[in-house]
Amino acid sequence: MSILRNKKFLSLYTATAISNLGDGVGTVAYPWLASAVTRNPVLVALVAVAQRLPWLVFTLPAGVITDRVDRRKAMVAMDGVRCALTVAVAVAVFTQRSGLPAPGRVPDVMGTKTGLYVVLLVATLLLGMAEVLRDNSSQTIVPAIVEPDALEKANGRMWGIEGIMNTFIGPPLGALLIGVAFALPFVIDAASFFAAAALVAIIPGTFRATRSETPEGESGASSWRDELKEGVRWLWGHELLRPMAIILGLMNAADTVSGATFVLFAQEVMHTSPLVFSILGFGGALGGIVAGQFASAASKRFGSGTCLTITLLGGVVLATLIGSIAIWPVVLVLFAVMMMLGMLWNVITVSLRQTIIPAHLLGRVNSVYRFFAWGMMPVGAALGGVTVVVVDSFASRGTALRATWFVSAGIHVVLFVLGRRYLTTAKIEAARAAVS
Question: What domains, with CATH codes, occur in the chain?
């Protein structure tokens, strides 16, 4: 039976599709707005830092919250918060539209529009915090609405539709909307969060984790600390998930080194317009569509460990090629391969975590895992901005923007060596067998 015949999963799947359509619009709108209010690479990178900082400072508390509340209600609440914040950004952009470049034009501002930049920075930080709790709740709710043997297929469908909306449909739509009015993509993004909240709200049932009561005589604060420690101990004591989380964290940091200033790289090195900038996401979407369909089969055919190692090696090759060639049609193709490998990693590792982590610990352990995996992103973003400034002091601006890709490739070399040692198929299958 098709996984989409599961009505609960279908509602979650549709909400994910709509929400990620808005996110795809935002992947063009937010960096383009940042580049319109400042050309300073450190300030542009700081927006990426603010977006990912919550994964470092809020992920662990979010895990405890996820295991204490109804996960469906948490998703609805966080999508509501994200809707309100995005409306605030839209209003700020609309009221200051006279100081922004004409719709669809590549920004050439030399100074920094401080007021709008502060709004963008604060909103990005708060949106990131809501995203942490929402995404953690979303991943932990999936095992409650699909059968265990359908997890990889369900995750493949979820990651696939996220890729389609986030990189194939959303970005070009965002570019077209920017061409009409700078505030319009933020309005659409807000509407997508509202619609997603409504769809998740109609999923029937209760999705609160089964947990022990607070011991008599202990305060709620003490219970929070104990529950958090329990999640940390479980992950840190697991011989497979511990290195997997650390490797993923460094891999995400490497990707963010180049991603934090990518809008400047696209504008100044590849000379893209908003439309071409959005088209670059097509490659990623195509790779995501393909990988979402074959990831589970590839894992079974070649072994999960082999697939993860190939992903790490691909990071070395792809980052080197993008930094060296920097021609947008070629980068489009390379992005397709990059997303294909990233999707393969996600489907395998997310399904593995959902299988081997005890249900009552899933929210907390998942958040600890993400603390390592995503918490390094703001570090990578900051490193990306600093790399551009340092290299720019003795080389050309174009060379400085290319340098972030070579730093990313160097980090991936180290991760490839570590992955071959710690993420083997034998260790992954042993971890699965231990809970069967």
Answer: 3-204+227-433 (1.20.1250.20)
Over the stretch 168-192, which tens digit does the pLDDT of each residue have? 788 778 878 887 888 999 999 999 9
Q: What are phi and psi of 274, to 5 degrees?
A: -55, -40
- The one-letter amino acid at 125: L
Buried b / exposed e over 159-171, threshold 16 CB at 10 Å, is bbbbbbbbbbbbb
Tell me the three state secondary structure of residue 70. strand
Distance CA 170, CA 411 (A): 30
CB 209 within 8 A of CB 64: no
Helix (H, G, I), strand (E, B) or coil at 208: strand
Do 320 and 279 form a contact (C-beta atoms < 8 A)?
no
> Which of 103, 2, 126, 104 lies closest to 53 in space, CA to CA?
126
pLDDT exceeds cutoff 80 at 99: no
d(CA 190, CA 196): 10
Instruction: Say if CB 371 and CB 59 are below 8 A apart.
Output: yes
Predicted pLDDT of residue 214: 42
> What's the token pair of residue 172?
């070009």
- What is the percent of the chain with per-residue pLDDT over 90, rounded to a whole number? 43
Q: Is the pTM here over 0.90, yes or no?
A: no
pLDDT at 219 over 70: no
pLDDT tens, position by position, 255-297? 999 998 998 999 899 998 877 887 886 776 677 677 767 777 8
Q: Which residues, including other chains, have CB under 8 Å from residue 219's CB and lie 6 or more apart?
A: none
206 backbone φψ class: left, alpha, beta (φ>0; ψ -120 to 50):
beta
pLDDT digits (tens, 9 = 90+) for 232-247: 899 999 999 999 999 9
Q: Which residue has the tokens 């996401």?
A: 281
pLDDT confidence of residue 142:
85
> Which tokens belong to 345?
């990693």
Q: How far apart are CA 404 and CA 384, in angstroms?
A: 6
CA-based torsion, 257, 337, 247, 356: positive or negative? positive
Type of residue numbered 337: V
**What is the number of alpha carbons within 13 Å of residue 242 lying toward its C-beta?**
9
